[in-house]
Design goal:
single chain, mainly alpha, 64% helix
C-alpha cells in the first residue's frame, strides 16, 4: 500500500466514523463522551473550552 492508498483508506474510515457518530444527537453525544471531550454529566471538559469562557465562568461564580 502506497501513501496515496493509505491516505484514501484513512479518509474513508474517517468519513464512515463521522457518519456513524453523527447519525443522531444521542449518538453524537455518546461519541463525544467516549472520546473524553464531554464528561458523563454532559459538561464540556475544561481543556476544550475557549480560555475566555473559562475566565467568564470563574468570574461569575
Amino acid at each position: 500500500m502506497n501513501d496515496a492508498d493509505r491516505r484514501a483508506a484513512v479518509l474513508a474510515v474517517i468519513k464512515l466514523k463521522t457518519e456513524e457518530n453523527t447519525a443522531s444527537r444521542e449518538t453524537a453525544r455518546a461519541a463525544l463522551i467516549a472520546e473524553g471531550i464531554y464528561t458523563k454529566a454532559g459538561k464540556l471538559r475544561a481543556q476544550f473550552q475557549v480560555p475566555n469562557e473559562r475566565k467568564r465562568k470563574t468570574e461569575a461564580a
